[in-house]
Amino acid sequence: MKNLQEQEKQEGLQDKGSIFTAPLQRRSFLQYAGAGAAGVALVAAGCRKDRPTIPTMDGVTLDFKNDFGVLNYAYALEQLEAAFYIQVASNPPSDFSASEKAYFQDIQFHEIAHREFFKKALSTAAIGSLEVDFSSINFTTRAGVLGAAKTFEDLGVAAYNGAGKRLTTDAYIVVAGQIVSVEARHAAYVRDMISPGSFSDLNDLAGLGSNNAGGLDGALTPDKVLTAASKYIKTKVNVVNL
Predict the structure, then answer these.
(1) Among 10, 12, 47, 128, which residue's beta carbon has the most beta carbons within 10 A?
(2) Domains, in order of start, for the chain
(3) What is the pLDDT of residues 164-215, one digit of tens each?
(4) Residue 92 exposure: Cα atoms within 13 Å on the Cβ side
């Protein structure tokens, strides 16, 4: 893990393929072993020739006319989360406990794995790298970091849940389900750090009125997710065929 962390501090993962072969902590391995195994199916399915033709626009374009648009949507959100956790892990708040620092290190590696997984699977169909804007986040305090982490994790879970029905390829559905299960663990842990016992309360999800009265995680459509995430993204995100 030290080698991977040192690489990340130099704007990490120059060797994109190493994320699935690098040594993992024991508790981390169990959480993303499933997604790594299913990756074989996703990469194989991604070799199809029916990739979308994306109109030329400034920024990046998410074309939801087929599965590749949904995968790029997930890739965009994973870029955002990975960038956030890399910044936290490289300079954690002074009032973080040792265990909190260690857990946020773990989450960092999970999000990097998710980001690199989608980039590799999408290959030439992948959107470009997003430029983030975290100026509204106070990275110097535990409260500031946890508040932002809750927003990102809740939004990520709701995004996967809301976009899952758009996927038509079994391999993609399987992988999305495995990744969102890990994101949900992150969300539950962060919420419990903020207020013990609040891990399943999504009534205030991104301020958009989502709730889980039926015992289910929230689900949001891409337009609502991207609106909520827009304050953290400098790159223009174009959406077509939504």
Answers:
(1) 12
(2) 32-47+57-240 (1.20.1260)
(3) 999 999 999 999 999 999 999 999 899 889 988 777 655 555 444 444 556 6
(4) 18
